[in-house]
Amino acid sequence: MSRSPVPSDLSIGQMAARAGVPVSTLHFYEAEGLIRSWRNPANHRRYDRRELRRVAIIKVAQAVGVSLSEIREVLDRLPRDRAVSAQDWAEAAAPWRAMLDERIALMTRLRDQMGHCIGCGCLSLDSCPLYNAQDRLGRSGPGPRRWTGTAGERA
Ligand code: FES
After folding, report:
1. Is 104 in the pocket of ligand 1 (CB under 6 A)?
2. What residues in the chain have per-residue pLDDT under 50?
3. Which of 14, 29, 73, 143 has the most CB atoms around its CB within 10 Å?
4. Residue 37, exposed/middle/buried by CB under 10 A (0-12, 13-18, 19+)?
5. How many CB atoms lie within 10 A of CB 5?
6. Tens of pLDDT along 88-125?
7. 132 CB less than 6 Å from ligand 1?
8. How far is CA 118 from CA 12, 106, 141, in A?
């Protein structure tokens, strides 16, 4: 990508330091087409400061388990020929809302029910005979039936 330099552009070292990622991570994100750089006349890689937001979104999304392909789908919806507005970000991320709500609900159950019977079939806790006597939840399917909200009962 070629363009005219602006004072706020960052070297790869500055970009890595500000984003809090190793240089190798920036190379990886760029190879994956998630971020872009350009080359100055000395052939040094430069980043538009706005790429920092993309790196931040990638890092946070990865931390909560969003795959790179899901991240790419969102980033690909953003315009590259002009500054990305708050509205652009909101519209691009809209498809994530239901997926993130689902993950938040699952993480909440994980946090709150680790010490309780989750209907996994182990029958190893004192509460299992109360909530999953003789593994009756296993008849409705595999996995932790009370965690995934598929037990056909209120958790
Ligand atoms: S915790 Fe596994 S069946 Fe109760």
Report:
1. no
2. 154-155
3. 29
4. buried
5. 11
6. 999 998 989 999 998 998 889 889 989 999 999 999 99
7. yes
8. 47, 12, 13
Token pair of 110, please?
A: 């994980």
User: Which residue's C-alpha comes closest to atom 1 of ligand 1?
Assistant: 117
The closest residue, in CA terms, to atom 4 on ligand 1 is: 117
**Domains and their CATH numbers in the chain:** 10-114 (1.10.1660.10), 115-150 (no CATH)
Report in angstroms the alpha-carbon separations of 92 from 7, 49, 100, 102, 124. Answer: 29, 20, 14, 18, 45
Tokens of 43: 């052939």
